[in-house]
Amino acid sequence: MRDLQRLEELSSTAALGLWSDDVVVAISRATTGTQLTDADEGLLKEAATILDSAAKRTAKPLVTPRTARALAATDTALIAVAALVSEGDSREQKKLMTSLAKAIRRAAKSALEEGDSAQLTRAMSLFGIFGELQLVESNSVLTSRNDSKAWTGTQAISPSF
Amino acid sequence: MDGNPSDLTLLLASAQQEIDGLRDDPRMSSLEAGSRGVALRSHVLDLIGAVEYRVAQSPTPSSPEPERRAFARSMRQSILVLRGAHAALPWLEATRRPTLNLGSLYLTEDCARSLVGNDVDLVVVPDPEFMYSTTSWMFSAVVISTPGFVAATTRRPIVLNYPLSDSDRLLLHPIFAHELGHAAVDEHRLVADVEAALDNDPSFVAAFGKAVTDMEALWTAASPTQIAGTVRASLRQWIEELLCDHLAVEALGPAFLWAFSSFVMPLSYGVPAQSHPPNTLRTRLLITHLTERGWRAYLDRAAPNIMSWLDGIAADAASPIAMPYSFLRDQLLAYGQVLRDTALSRAGAHAMSPAEAEVGANEAADLLAETILPNGTHGPLDGRSILLGGWQHAFVEHGDHPGGIVAATRDRQIQELVGKAIEMSVVEQTWTEEA
Q1: Please, are residues B338 and B197 in contact by the beta-carbon 8 Å criterion?
Q2: Cβ(B418)–Cβ(B392) under 8 Å?
Q3: Are B60 and A25 in contact (CB under 8 A)?
Q4: Which chain B residues touch A10 with a CB distance below 8 Å?
Q5: Residue B162 in 3-state DSSP?
Q6: Pairing with B118, which of A93, A100, B255, B371 sits 20 to 30 Å away (CA)?
Q7: Residue B271, φ and ψ in degrees, nearest 5
Q8: How many domains does chain A have?
């Protein structure tokens, strides 16, 4: 069996889901005025960076994240944003991601502005969808055989000979 | 809706059950310090610790709904990974009763130290699936994704998987060096090094852009961004596989080429895959690397007909293949020197030297011809030379042709002698050093 590969894939997929759910919690704390920890601030900054990266990826092919995790995160972010923006217009998606990234950055600095509350609620929905997608993926990794993926599928993390 | 009080009660109870199931399993009992599997066990305990850390941050019923739902999802993710972690239990059991030939195990541990570093915990386990594979730091993604939790494990656990039937087929075990290459690539971020060299060359950047443009006509449903991301992901995987081949050559020399040919050529010839380059390309780059490192004369002397056969396979690397595979192949052939330099740099002083190894390999082959344990007449031979000599003698016994390379791996007597000789050589060297 290919459990060795699937185990690393499961761990990577789950970690991305855990991260997005931690982002939801951090945003929730920021919106309710709870004192943010260093970890919360770090998560919020990472979330804003992922949204910025995802927004850039819609424009230029060679702007590609360097790590497998960042690549997977921006891919998932794009899917989650597409689910959130009913219009399906890539310009609207890019605009939304950039706007959410800015609001999240202000939340990380505890410097919220008027209108940020609504944006942060949308951001929680976005990363909530992100978390749900990753949970589906984790279940799929654990319960299915490691069939070869299509070209557009998520890259395998650990190869065999 | 998920995250309600009943849902959270269920999830916390379930997570605890999975934690108890792992922690109380007899196979998780403590191991003697320094023995195989200690870091793997510690890594599993880190996973458990990370989940317990999350459990301790359970929201209250009055917490905002998004927080409760996010926590519920994180518990479900944690439970999935804990269930997956049960796969580690048979590995831990295998450390107490290793089935791999001891000589091969010693040689593989030596390769691990050479390619990955001294701080590794190697667990080698048989698998009913007929494939070699590896994994290391298998739960680290989850552990490091737990903000505030500090892991205890610093030593890299590596699990090597081999076909159940191959425990004493020593001549195929150079494949382990390729598998350890994956851990080396990860530990030392070697793919990023190679990728950086490519990306710093404007001609590669231009070629990449052109490949994406060309692919738009073929993958009409995908955006340029998706195409670029997919090709980039495959490029990284091909680089990793090729780096592992090159590292294996640095670790074990021609023995890897012969083991590789015997194992993979019956599976596939020139067909590329998303994760793996075609075997024609792998063979070509292997021969180029071995030639550059001074092995060509030895290869031609030890098995001239087999080299002629392999040269033919290497020539077929230029055969037409579809895009984007042709782009990947052409670029990696053009930048083969980067792969070779990166592998040699990683192996450093541990790189196998033809001048030294050939003398030992000849002696081992001569001893095997007399059915004498080939561990050296004037002192212990190096294990890598013994393995090389084993192949050399096997060609004499079974023929210098593609059928002979397969028959060699079925010869139990040669492989038993080679394994025992490596084991005795390591014991003697260790005894001499300690004395």
Answers
A1: yes
A2: no
A3: no
A4: 80-81, 84
A5: strand
A6: B255
A7: -90, 120
A8: 1
- Structure confidence by residue, pLDDT tens digits, B361-414: 999 999 999 999 999 998 899 999 999 999 999 999 999 999 999 999 999 999
Any idea what DSSP says for residue B129?
S
Q: Which domain holds residue A81?
A: 3-143
| Residue B261 with chain A: CB contacts under 8 Å | none
CB B138 within 8 A of CB B88: yes
CA atoms of A101 and B268, how far apart (whole Å) = 47
A49 within domain boundaries: yes
Interface predicted TM-score (ipTM) of this complex, two decimals: 0.82
Dig out the tokens for B84 from the structure.
């997956």
State the residue for tokens 């070779």: B340
Q: Are strands B120-127 and B133-136 parallel, antiparallel or unpaired?
A: unpaired
- The CB density around residue B10, as the number of other CB atoms within 10 Å, is 13
Q: How far apart are CA B139 and CA B142, in angstroms?
A: 6
In whole angstroms, what is the distance from residue A74 CA to residue A68 CA?
10
Residue whose pair of structure tokens reads 């929905």 in the numeric block:
A125
Using CA atoms, how far apart are residues B339 and B332, in angstroms rounded to an integer? 8
Q: Cβ of B71 and A5 within 8 Å?
A: no
B16: tokens are 């605890």
Kindly identify which residue of chain B lies nearest to residue A56, measuring between CA atoms.
B225
- Domain borders along chain B are 5-173, 185-350, 354-434
Q: Looking at the complex, report in whole angstroms how far the Cα of residue B105 sits from the nearest Cα belonging to chain A.
A: 18
H-type alpha helices, B219-370: 224-252, 254-264, 279-292, 296-302, 304-315, 325-334, 336-347, 354-369
Instruction: Report helix, strand or coil for B127.
Output: strand
Q: Which residues of chain A have pLDDT under 50?
A: 1-3, 58-68, 146-159
Of A2, A14, A25, the CB nearest to B80: A14
* Total-model pTM: 0.86
SS3 state at B54: helix
Neighbour count for residue A49 (Cβ, 10 Å)? 17
Per-window interface: B 186-205 vs A, CB < 8 A: 192, 205
H/E run at residue B136: strand B133-136
Of B48, B54, B43, B42, the C-alpha closest to B19 is: B48
Tell me the pLDDT tens digit for each residue of B252-283: 999 999 999 999 999 999 999 998 999 999 99
Instruction: With respect to residue A152, please indicate whether it lies within any of the assigned structural domains.
Output: no
Question: How far is the C-alpha of A122 from the C-alpha of A120, rounded, in Å?
Answer: 5
Q: Would residue A151 count as lying in a domain? A: no
User: Residue type for B136, please?
Assistant: S
The DSSP call for residue B28 is G
- Say if residue B324 is preceded by a cis peptide, omega within 30 of 0: yes
User: CA-CA distance, B250 to B207, in Å (whole number)?
Assistant: 30
Widest CA span of chain A, in angstroms? 56
Residues from chain A contacting residue B237 (CB–CB below 8 Å)? 155-156, 159
CA dist B155 and A4 (Å) reads: 19
Min distance A99 CA to chain B CA atoms (Å): 21
Encoding tokens for residue B118? 């001294």
